[in-house]
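debug: dumping io for the single-chain case to check the tokenizer round-trip. Nothing else runs in this session.
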Amino acid sequence: MRESGSDSDSAASKNSSADALHTILVPLDGSPLAESALPMAVQIARATGGALLLAHVISNLTWAFAAETGLTSAEAYEELLAIENRGAREYLQRMVSSVPAEAGVRVEGTQVRGEPAPALIDLIEELDVDLVVMTTHGYTGLRRFALGSVADRVARSGTAPVLLLRSFEQPQGNDQLERALIPLDGSTLAESALEVADQLVGMVIRQVTLLRAVTPAGAAAAEIRSAEQYLRSTSERPRTRWQARGCDVTELVVRGQPGPCIVREAARTGALIILATRGQTGWTRWTLGSVADRVLEGAQSALLLVNPRVTQTHREA
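debug: decoded output
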């Protein structure tokens, strides 16, 4: 729909690797809640040189039911669809135009018809989206990140990391993302979060803390030393690269259950949590009581969810 300014060329040159964020998707449904994700998405796009894609999904359910049950004629049904499509185009144009040209961000709008979660998942895969930015219906932390919600389904089954912003605070800028907390448990699954962080380090993220929680709380000194050594060795790979981009890297070992420890540390520092999940294909729920669930329920900060099978697919491609 629009390319905003030429400053995006210089921003893009800072992030021109194969792993750069080329397309950042913001799902919109016409509500202020969904639109509140837009300022943060603009900030990320500006910092990384990525293009914004604003997607509006139109559900067929209401009018299809009316047509199938004979409550409206085929002609009236087509007219209603045309009106709805026209309204969606006008809405998207307003949203595209709301991005200031001086931001230097390439922005386009697209509309798709269908059920929101499957339609967005298909769009993400079709357009090879690199990041999804959306707002949750969170009240206390992200407690209302409910089974079956659009955000839940996109995060678990989409082929892109999903940045979830809490709905009770209007995002003001990418300074909220300057500090990142990456929980690690010694598995390659958890370490896949490092690959996604690499796309933001130096452009959005300026300080990274790698966290390892050791249980039980009374763990022996030897276990603490082992956890510290693991974090040091894990940070060796990205440290030099990230420091060259102006990003500081620290390690932190804490005693206690991972979920509460992650939530407390993120609340203390205001850090973005970058967390690998155990999302699966289909609509099966993450394991009840998993670390991801605990963090989703209690987090007070933004949360970037990474599906490890997606990063694995990208490595094999």
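debug: round-trip ok. Residues 3-18, 139-148, 170-174, 280-289 have pLDDT under 50 and may be disordered.
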